[in-house]
Specification:
alpha/beta; Rossmann fold; nine-stranded mixed sheet; two-stranded antiparallel ribbon; 11 strands; 32% helix
Length: 257
């Protein structure tokens, strides 16, 4: 074998060895990347009340905690409005107002929450979240409407007008549900309505043909989702309502599953 052939063979062996070493390094790097823990979103559930306190709040918190165990997020509940400061809010991907009532944040806390939303934070309101902060117009537009009144609790038919959303895709076009049905005032015209109440199916409706009961929209940098359901403890045992809540959470987190 000539000297030239020997040299070529030697170079080939060197390149093969280098290639194997690089391949092993890439495989190791890939394995290390796969082992990195996924970032689990943290959700703050705010349940402070200054007016009527719903008995279903504790059941609602428990249900959200159960949903978190089966899905990729964690729940922290608070009644302390002092948690609405910039450093604390920045820990959370979503803040849920669960049947809060009346004036729950002071001016400094409102400013911190506004900044949180402006920087891409997200908001979800459940039931009496619309019975909150009447003197803060920014919040009214964020949640999407304010509570006006309600008749006695009863079953009603919900028209599911958008079944493409993660909070409604599991539902049929009509959903019969028992709850306390809110009438609304100052409805934000920019909301995207997901479900409407059929006022002919129950007594006491005051919004006529335009009676949204669940909606979503993007607002000043963040996502907002609201559902008017959730007055009764029994509602939180309803698998359809649980999926409705979970879909709202997924939407707010940008996980449109």
């Amino acid at each position: 074998m000539g000297v030239r052939n020997v040299l070529l063979m030697g170079l080939t062996i060197v390149f093969l060895l280098l290639g194997c070493e690089q391949g092993a390094k890439n495989a190791k790097d890939s394995s290390a990347s796969e082992e990195l823990p996924a970032i689990i979103p943290k959700i703050l559930v705010f349940t402070k009340t200054q007016g009527y306190r719903h008995q279903a709040i504790e059941k609602g918190v428990s249900t959200l905690q159960d949903l978190s165990k089966a899905n990729s997020f964690t729940i922290t509940q608070t009644e302390n409005s002092e948690d609405f400061n910039e450093d604390n809010l920045n820990k959370y991907s979503l803040v849920i107002f669960l049947s809060t009532t009346l004036d729950v944040l002071d001016e400094a806390q409102q400013q911190a929450f506004t900044k949180y939303i402006n920087q891409g934070g997200n908001y979800m309101g459940i039931h009496a979240a619309t019975d909150t902060e009447y003197d803060w117009p920014w919040y009214g537009k964020l949640v999407g409407a304010y509570f006006k009144s309600h008749p006695e609790q009863q079953q009603a038919t919900i028209d599911v007008v958008d079944r493409s959303h993660p909070s409604t895709k599991h539902l049929d076009e009509k959903w019969a549900h028992f709850d306390e049905w809110y009438n609304f005032k100052m409805i934000n015209p920019d909301i995207n309505v997901l479900m409407q109440l059929d006022e002919s199916s129950y007594s006491g409706g005051e919004n006529g043909d335009n009676h949204p009961i669940a909606w979503h929209h993007e607002y000043e940098g963040g996502r907002s989702f609201y559902t008017g359901l959730g007055h009764t403890e029994e509602a939180y045992d309803d698998p359809d309502f649980q999926k409705h809540l979970l879909g709202g959470i997924f939407y707010c987190l940008g996980q449109n599953e």
